[in-house]
Amino acid sequence: MNADQLKALIAAGLACEHIELDGDGRHWFATIVSSEFEGKRAIARHQRVYATLGDKMKTDEVHALSMKAFTPTEWAAQRA
To answer: Which domains does the chain have, with CATH numbers?
Structure first.
């Protein structure tokens, strides 16, 4: 799976204001900004993103995905 495919998969299942991906085709790091993360702890945010991948992690199409998940407000504060 390439970065564009992974980005499209996440975006199809989660309303994102921003997605950055870096990886080697199996191991990925993502920065994801979504208003759907409002009021959720980090683990719930990660679970929400993993849910967009469906079986892709179980079938090893995406071997590893680590991420930082921000609300738009948190992202704006990071960028300031």
So the answer is: 3-79 (3.30.300.90)
